Amino acid sequence: MNKMNVQAEVQLKGQKAKEAARKLASLPTDVKNKALLNMAKLLEERTEEIIAANEIDMDAARKKNLSKALLDRLLLTPERISDMAEGLRALVALPDPVGEIISMWTRPNGLQIGKMRVPLGVVGIIYEARPNVTVDAAGLCLKTGNAVILRGGSEAINSNTAIVRIISQAAENAGVPEGAIQLIETTDREAVNVMLKANDFLDVLIPRGGAGLIQTVVNNATVPVIETGVGNCHVYVDDEADLEMATDIVVNAKTQRPGVCNAMETLLVHEAVAEKFLPMVARRLEEAGVELRGCEKTRRILTQIQVATKEDWATEYLDLILAIKVVKDMQEAIEHIHNYGTKHSEAIVTNNYQRARDFLQSVDAAAVYVNASTRFTDGYQYGFGAEIGISTQKLHARGPMGPKELTTFKYIIFGNGQIRT
Amino acid sequence: MNKMNVQAEVQLKGQKAKEAARKLASLPTDVKNKALLNMAKLLEERTEEIIAANEIDMDAARKKNLSKALLDRLLLTPERISDMAEGLRALVALPDPVGEIISMWTRPNGLQIGKMRVPLGVVGIIYEARPNVTVDAAGLCLKTGNAVILRGGSEAINSNTAIVRIISQAAENAGVPEGAIQLIETTDREAVNVMLKANDFLDVLIPRGGAGLIQTVVNNATVPVIETGVGNCHVYVDDEADLEMATDIVVNAKTQRPGVCNAMETLLVHEAVAEKFLPMVARRLEEAGVELRGCEKTRRILTQIQVATKEDWATEYLDLILAIKVVKDMQEAIEHIHNYGTKHSEAIVTNNYQRARDFLQSVDAAAVYVNASTRFTDGYQYGFGAEIGISTQKLHARGPMGPKELTTFKYIIFGNGQIRT
Fold it and tell me: Which residues form the Aldehyde dehydrogenase domain (chains A, B) (predicted)?
């Protein structure tokens, strides 16, 4: 496909999405919920069709010698398709954020001013190989009254095409306007470039995937972006920590699911407890298969481990690897987080009241924890339900982006002839 | 100054701002308020110095034959300096948004999760010739704990340099960290380009000025932008409107202050009342010196007026000119607003209950009015106090951007050893 055709496809879909968004904004909740149930049902009914398409992707991926991890992300099974369907059904139970009056007040001149929650409009999602993102994103956007333009990784193009064909048909059958859920079908990378500058029809772009993808989008998009996902998260164990609690939190933050953005990547330990704490925690981490890398002070205590370099401090391993640094006090820990953190999730373990307060105050991140695992930064764990990602930027949304974060508001003003004097 | 020096200046100031922002985030409210009072006092005390600098700018502007309107925007007088000082004093009375706990809840596992309001960090303001923006923006950013990097128009460089020298010194004397208020002193346009891509140290860019400036920033910035200001606002007069009320609202929306973004630019009139309403309103508008331009149907009633072209529908006159279109029903009015509006402020005048509801629901704008003038879209009118602009985009902030809109939040989580299972 040549450059002009790519542009034409994206723009045509953009126009359709924009038209659909106007209708979606006033679509009743029960129509949206019925559509979500239809989508879930049709996904399950047409499992074979999806798996056949997925096999084409899997074959091509194996020929390209993609890594085992990537192949696993790409793979669809009846069980995984069922999970996607269940995800859609779970959305039905969530309250519809659209139309909520967030607040309303009356001015001295009698004007009644309200803030009404409305959809963002058209959301662009740029993501990598995981086809489940297709369903998750489409479902959340529909629930929140947004049109969505999906641009998944080329490895998953056949899977995604089948999925979107099925769910968009199911949605339309329930009364959702055509164009509400669309996939960019060309695998030409130029399509991403067109989306990045499509201010005319995209209200927001949400990249989901690795650091490289996110940086490309942030550095080149003129459409407003919500940056998600990269989490170089730290746990700082203070000299006044309960060391048993600290051990449990560190092991949980590192090993409970190492491949996700809210997992811990670097452990910071106050020097006064390092000699006692590091052997305790190292044993538990090594039992769980974690490779440890440490600063010089750490390696004087854990003599068998590799050295951690500056690169380690900056790395989101997403794997069973942990960097460890001994710090002389909380301030050094905070400086380290300031220099290497990605403003995602940061934790302190301490029983010192003032330090807990100071850490909460000083650390600039979407989520700052006292005496709990960083793994809680998650829409379900916070009580919001499904999320479209974890925002690590400051504008609009921070932390888990649930249904409310996919909306904006407008002021509605009721007067009886007021004019300004 | 060559390109490298420009980049060096912006980056150096960016780094200083970033450092200042960390300290500003925890600066007590009383220090910030004392600084605002100091800034106001020193501005007034050093009025002569500011006016001397302003005269250099005015001389240069006169030599360049700038328009009368631009010269007036640039001019500083003792009275205008006093007004700027009063603006700073007014900020003292506003509540400090920083540190507010927006909400807090407890999860079934005992985790207590709160949303705490925090500053955005470093705010970049790119604006045109009005030196009062320098003081307004610096004051609002300081009140909200943000560092600010100001980039005003080159015509005002001497005025702005004098003002920032004075207010930053006054702020520092009160305990505000160095680097909290900075001006880009090179007038090289390259400085704007550097700011547009300065994701490393700018958390948000706010352009203030004409449509050209705003489009340049939106189309080229990779730093998150809050788009402000362009207002192609409409009033739709329904066939069930109280025509006396409609006349008052239309005259107010057009003439009370025609040069601002919330003034009406196009009047839409239901055809069933056009013959009665247009002569009524035209007489009042012409008395106020408004030039009228109309569609063909309008000109059959107001036979003396010029024709309005497609270009008129798209123009924000910011002047005593009004385009008028007769529409066959509310739906046509909504379509016209959809096609030509800038999502700023839109109004309907009607006594029909269902149409009032439908208009509020269907029109996508920051502020949608029933039976009131569009001129109310303003921080003070909404009860927020001072504002940094009117956001016409959907992400983060919409409508008047007061102190709260210059903040973000972080989740603070209190645990007692919770781990994820």
Answer: 8-288
Fold exhibited by the domain A233-381? Aldehyde Dehydrogenase; Chain A, domain 2 (3.40.309)
Which residues in chain B are classed under CATH 3.40.309.10?
Answer: 233-377
User: What's the gap in Å between the CA of B125 and the closest CA on chain A?
Assistant: 16
Q: Do A368 and B411 touch (CB under 8 A)?
A: yes
| Beta-carbon separation of B373 and A256 below 8 A | no
Backbone phi, psi, residue A205, to 5°: -120, 135
Q: Which residues of chain A does CATH 3.40.605.10 include?
A: 3-228+396-414
Q: Which residues of A314-350 are buried (b: 16+ CB within 10 A; e: fewer)?
A: ebbbbebbbbbbbbeebebbbebbeebbbbbbbbbbb
How does DSSP classify residue B225?
A: B
How far B414 CA lies from chain A's nearest CA (Å)?
5
Closest Cα in chain B, distance from residue A237 (Å): 12
What's the ipTM?
Answer: 0.93
To test the contact with chain A by mutation, choose from B222, B394, B409, B416 the residue with the greatest count of A C-beta atoms within 10 A, namely: B394
Residues of B in contact with A222 (CB under 8 A): 218-222
Nearest to A368 among B218, B394, B412 (CB): B412
- B3-228+396-414 is a CATH 3.40.50.300 domain: no
Residue from the list B113, B366, B371 with its beta carbon closest to the beta carbon of A382: B113
Across the interface, whether the CB atoms of A222 and B226 are under 8 A apart is answered: no
Q: Give A-chain residues touching B147 at CB under 8 angstroms.
A: none
| Superfamily (CATH) of domain B233-377 | Aldehyde Dehydrogenase; Chain A, domain 2 (3.40.309.10)
Per-residue pLDDT of chain B (421 residues; tens, 9 = 90+): 577 799 999 999 999 999 999 999 999 999 999 999 999 999 999 999 999 999 999 999 999 999 888 899 899 999 999 999 999 999 999 999 999 999 999 999 999 999 999 999 999 999 987 899 999 999 999 999 999 999 999 999 999 999 999 999 999 999 999 999 999 999 999 999 999 999 999 999 999 988 889 989 988 999 999 988 789 999 999 999 999 999 999 999 999 999 889 999 999 999 999 999 999 999 999 999 999 999 999 999 999 999 999 999 999 999 999 999 999 999 999 999 999 999 999 999 999 999 999 999 999 999 999 999 999 999 999 998 889 999 998 999 999 999 999 999 999 999 999 999 9
Cβ of B376 within 8 Å of Cβ of A413? The answer is yes
CB contacts of B396 in chain A (<8 Å) are 395-396
Instruction: With beta carbons under 8 A apart, name residues in chain A contacting B414.
Output: 370-372
Flag if B376 and A121 touch (Cβ within 8 Å): no
